[in-house]
Amino acid sequence: MYHRRPLTPRLLRVLLAALLAVGGLLLGAGTAPAAAPAAAPAGAPAFAPAADNGSWAVYPVPASKAKNALPDREYFYLEAAPGASVSDTVSVFNTSAAPITFQLYGADAYNTPRDGGFALRAADQPQLGVGAWAHLKVNRLTVPAHHRADIPFTITVPKGAEPGDHPGAIVALDTATVGTSSNGKVAVGIKRAVGARVYLRVSGPAVPAVSLQDVSVSRKAPLVPGIGSSSATVHYTLVNRGNTTVHPTLALKASGWFGGTVLNSVPKDLGIDLLPGQSVTLTAPWPHPPQFDHVSLKLSIAGTDISATAGTSFFAVPWFLVGLVLLLIVLLVGARRLRSRRRRAQRGGGSWRRGRVRVEAAA
C-alpha cells in the first residue's frame, strides 16, 4: 500500500532551500540642465536676498544708508532674556516699476509637514512667539517703485517665555489681491507676502533633542528576480523634541542574509531647519535594493549635539516565484494523494471480483 510522505520540518527546509536556489539562479542570470537665473529688475539692489519674490525684497537693514547698499545679514539673529526687549530694523525694497502698499506684521514660523520647509503663519492666524511679541513702528506703508523703506521694530519677550529658539519673521504683505482667471472669470484671489526670517533665542538652557519614528519601506520589484530593476523609498518621521533649531543629516545602512551590507550611504544634509516642537514626514530614495533577501535597515540622524537612530526589517520576496513554487508543491501533494487513492481502489476492486467468481462456480 502506498503511504504519502508527510511534510516534515526537514522537508519544508529542503523546499525553502530549493526556492532560495532558484532565486539565486535567477538573480545570477541576468537630468535636465538647470535654467539660467533671470536678470534682476531695473533698480534692484546688487544682491539676491533670501526673501525676494522678484517684485520686492525683505531683509535686515544694511549698515550703510546708501539706496543700493548690500545687507550685512541674511536673517535676523537675536537674543533676549525673558522679560527683556530687543530692537532692530527691517528693510522693504520695492524692485517693481509701480508703488506697492504693504501690511507689515510679525509671524511665527513652522515646518511644513511633508517636506520640512520653512513656513509662516498668516496675519489672521494665532501667533504665540515672534508673531505676538514683535511690534513694528508702522504696520502699513506705501513704498515707491525702486525705493527702500526701513522700519524699526521691537520684540518684547514675556517673563514666562520658555528658553530656546522661537523662530519667526517680519512679513511684508502686498495689500492688493491678485486674481487668477478661469474661463474669463476670477476664480481665486491671492495676496503675496515676503518675510525676513527672525531666529530669536530666549536666554536659558538649550536642550537639543530629536527622535526618529514610523520607519517603513515601500518597494517596486520585478515579478521574477533579476528580470528588471528594483527601487525602494524609505519613509520616516523626524521630531524635534528639544528647544533649539536643528540642521540634521541622514545616513542609511542595510544588511541582508545573503549579501552582507547591501546599503551604506554617507550622511546627507536634509536641507531643512527643523524647528522646536515640529515634526516632518520625509522620504529617502533607495535605488537598486535587494530583490530576494531579508533586509535590516537602520537610519541614523546626526547634527550639532543631536543623534537618533531607528530601523525596520522586511522580506524582499519575489511573490510570483513563491506562489509558483507553492502551486507546484500543492500539485505534487495532490498528485500523490490521487495516485494513492487509485491504487487502493484497484486493490480493493480486484479482491471482490475474485471472490464473486468463486461463489458462482460453487452454485
UniProtKB/TrEMBL annotation:
Transmembrane intervals: 314-335
Q: Superkingdom of the source?
A: Bacteria
Q: Which UniProt keywords apply?
A: Membrane, Signal, Transmembrane, Transmembrane helix
Signal peptide range: 1-34
The protein in question is named WxL protein peptidoglycan domain-containing protein
